[in-house]
Amino acid sequence: MTTPPFPAWLAKNPRLDRDAAFGREQQFVINPNGVPELALELGECPAHRVTPLYRLPALAERLGVGEVRVKDESQRFGFGAFKALGGVLAVGNVLSSAVGDATHSSPSFASLLKREHLDVTANHVFTTASSGNHGRSVAAGAKLFGNRCVIFLPKFTSADKEAAIRARGAEVIRIDGDYDTAVAECRKQAAANGWTIISDTSWEGYDAIPRSVMRGYSVLVEEIVQQWPDAPTHVFVQAGVGGLAAAVIGYLWAVLPQRPVSIVVEPASADCWFQSNRAGKPALASGNADTVMGGLACREISPVTWPIIGEAADWFMTIEEDGVLPARRLFAHPLDGDPAVTSGPSGCAGLAGLTRVCTEATAFEALGLDRNARVLLINSEGDLGEPLSD
Ligand SMILES: Cc1ncc(COP(=O)(O)O)c(C=O)c1O
Questions:
Q1: Domains in the chain: boundaries
Q2: How far apart are CA 45 and CA 40, in angstroms?
Q3: Ligand 1: does its nearest atom lie under 6 Å from the Cβ of 83?
Q4: Are both 10-82+210-379 and 84-199 of the same fold?
Q5: pLDDT tens-digit map of 159-207
Q6: Which of 5, 127, 159, 276 could serve as 195's disulfide partner, Cβ 3.0–4.6 Å?
């Protein structure tokens, strides 16, 4: 038997062509045009701050790479997750188009916030299925614009996350099943009641709203581009359905002269991207998505993201459940002089991926990591409802 060149939890993208240009198919998924302006517009919102991109030099030294930087989305909007950028914006976009269609004008966000078009907007009811963070963002958007909102939660979502959604005025329907079961129930009830689904995942015939959610995520990537003029050489990005990964990989590909090597990180039981990479097309996860990493607990990818992740992510890897706590602790109690970062189980998954690779020489080499590597991580959530006990 021949030894594989790298461990079984790591797989290369066989379709990869690093010389491929960011083409129309990719631009359909992540359109970089107007994102810097959107980021500037957000800056005018009093509650908004650009989230920090911390340097972790002691960790980089320990891991044998040149630099590690982490974009800390636990500080996004006082909301605690990057998801704040997606759902809120997508709700606003739906209302803006509805007003545009009705009045042949393009209303500003400010006028929607002032509820100047209630005759058109008031009847919209928004809904989504969520493991927690996305639902909170959609609820926040609906509240902001004065609309009713119904969120479908799987069984595993924490009571604190449910409370945070209810606190934003949304109704919550608990499903006795996993995330994908919640998606199915949400679609059924939305169709029966005429509600608008603000989903972060796409399906046949439904991709405009997930694309608008990802456009919101692109704002955090634009911030990174501004914060890091040298740009990363590697990015470890965690994936559930792939919306975050598509925004990160796609936006950096679109705007940088050379895109970084990207590594998509998933829980072993929710490895839908790992399996899709192997199959060469969207495929189900090999496990039942029973993971503490609730935001990543997906059995199916968002198919609209395939032209970016499926075609252009360099590597796919999985992490085990027992990698989560050490990664959270490493963020919370950092090495000498590094800043402390508050993360949740899904937030630290990129770091868990990086440390796994760094403990396996074949993987470290295969990814081209060395003392010149500049590694980007995204702490995609804080510890809402899941505080670290030590
Ligand atoms: C904290 C956190 N990180 C990462 C993800 C993964 O995002 P996506 O499903 O877009 O891949 C999620 C999704 O809910 C999340 O909540």
A1: 10-82+210-379, 84-199
A2: 9
A3: yes
A4: yes
A5: 999 999 999 999 999 999 998 899 999 999 999 999 999 999 999 999 9
A6: 127
